[in-house]
Amino acid sequence: MSTDLHEVKNEIRLALESKRNEVASRLHRLEEDIAVERVPDPIDQLGMLTQRESAITLLDRDTKLLREIDAALRRIGDGNFGRCALCGKKIGLARLRVVPWTSYCVACQEELDRSGARDEASFSTEEF
User: Fold this and answer.
1) Domains with residue ranges and CATH for the chain
2) Beta-carbon contacts of residue 105 (< 8 Å; ≥ 6 apart)
3) Model's pTM, two decimal places?
4) Which entry of 31, 56, 64, 121 is 20 to 30 Å from 24 by CA?
């Protein structure tokens, strides 16, 4: 681990833990929003259905983000933090500060985004 990365490792860990708490709290609220309620008015029912679908989308996104944060915290603990899960090269410090849960360097991330394989790659490289 480089000296620079070592110096900011605690800063990044604290940022990840803070983000984890924020996302976990939001997930709890979203789960409450998904509760199915019956209302007699079809227009109100449609509005509630739209809100529920939106909450489900956000729940899916935040659940994935929470898994990525937990994986990053594990990588910090086992000493693998800061290395790309695909090519093994160091992930830039600036990128880690902005997206500390990232598993990929910029080049690999761009390739995954182009190929549309990001979700498939994350399942093969992340621990669950």
Assistant:
1) 3-125 (1.20.120.910)
2) 84, 86, 87, 89, 90, 91, 92, 95
3) 0.73
4) 121
